[in-house]
Amino acid sequence: MLLGLRQAVRAAPxxxxxxxxxxxxxxxxxxxxFNQTRCYTQVTVDRELPDVMKAKRQNLKYFGIFCxxxxxxxxxxxxxxxxxxxxxxxxxxxxRQSPLTRASLxxxxxxxxxxxxxxxxxxxxGSEVDFRYSVVGDSGSGVAHFRAERRKGEQYxxxxxxxxxxxxxEHQGETISLQNEELVPSL
Length: 187
Hints:
This protein folds into two domains: about 1-40, no CATH class; about 80-175. It has helices at about 1-10, 55-85, 85-95, 100-105; strands at about 15-20, 25-30, 40, 110, 120, 130-135, 140-150, 160-165, 175. It is elongated and about 90 Å long. The chain starts with a helix and ends in a 10-residue tail after the last strand. The protein has four helices and nine strands, in the order αβββαααββββββ. By secondary structure, it is of the alpha+beta class. It comes from Starmerella bacillaris.
């Protein structure tokens, strides 16, 4: 088929534009500059193309589901990064080793939920770190709070608040300062 088309084009080189009819549709051959012939096939569709705007509501629904899924995924990634931040991990380690915390919450101190909710900022890129999260032990639960700031021109952070507030037990609702203990989290 292709060989026959080329022979037909070469047979009449005087025409600059011609149309040949084949079994696949009409073929237009153009002879532009530099005496090179180029052939293009015109394809015709025997049925009507689908209207993409017909299902506009359905497309908007799928787009909304996609955006919602992306937002939840982004949120989960950010919360996972907060929970695995070195600063948050060091505060949890300090809580586990603190005698005051073990006295009020018991042993086996861990995050209260499987996916911990870290509220506040735990990134050390700025001049202030301030966050809280819920913890639970064998005999109670509480909220740990850590706050540190870096003064202008200084290299190191200074811990201004390191405390735990038990939700149960004899010290319920009372803030216990952990700054005077041996192991204070550092940045």
